[in-house]
Amino acid sequence: MAETSAANEIHEAVLNVYDGKSNEGSITFVSIPFLQKLVAELVGTYFLIFLGGVSVVVNNNNNNIITLPGIAIVWGLLVMALVYSLGHISGAHFNPAVTLALASTKRFPLKQVPAYILTHVVGCLLASVTVRHIFTGKQDQFIGTLITGSYLRGFVLEFLVTFFLMFVVSGVATDSRATGELAGIVIGATVMLNVLVAGPITGTSMNPARSLGPAIVWHEYRGIWVYMTAPVAGAVAGVWVYNIIRSTDKPKHETKKGGTSFPKASSCCCGASK
């Protein structure tokens, strides 16, 4: 009887989780709301990379039928749709650089960063595997990012476009004075603009996971260090510069436990064909 009672107590403790809270002395592995956030990030990251990657493959296999502007529109619309559909659930990061940048300013719980980053990488890996299995043989096209020219130029460009994106995200999605309802449109438009400008040179990654997933699946690691470092540095710099010039007595949007609250959604994961 004692063993049965102890087992029931542990079972109740594990199930009794909500909003990241549990009774004192209970055993909690993961809260249901946080698990929902991870699923939202996984699904969002997967479809962002899958549909964006398919646009690159179709373009390369059909004599640039979509064109660079078309690919830019695809990524911009994808980001906008996912921000509006998942932003209120998980914050719509889909990008380790975004997660790290928000955590550096205490707008995202530091203890949840590893889980978010792992989810982003897994989502990109699954999407890359799916694309490669759908388009085989002569249609098999690398959907990752490669640098045209020097790595230094690629680093600077990736830093600047990610800085600009995160600066815009901070302005429209984390500042109480901004029109939050337009956040998804503005962020999507910024992604589209960055792809148009940097796509032919770096592929416009702005996202370490977006570049790492295809690199692992296609075994193509040239310049990967640029995509692992420049977006993170650019995102952190962008969010901190905006915080410096924010200067307001009005209260900031409150951050919900386990993620940013909508419209504090932020998403910047994309890549263009060259």
UniProtKB/TrEMBL annotation:
Keyword Plastid annotated: no
Topological relation to the membrane, as annotated: Multi-pass membrane protein
GO molecular function, one term: channel activity
Subcellular location(s) per record: Membrane
Membrane spanning stretches: 38-58, 64-86, 115-135, 155-173, 185-204, 224-245
Main location: membrane
Keywords annotated in UniProt: Membrane, Transmembrane, Transmembrane helix, Transport
Similarity comment: Belongs to the MIP/aquaporin (TC 1.A.8) family.
Protein name as it appears in the record: Uncharacterized protein
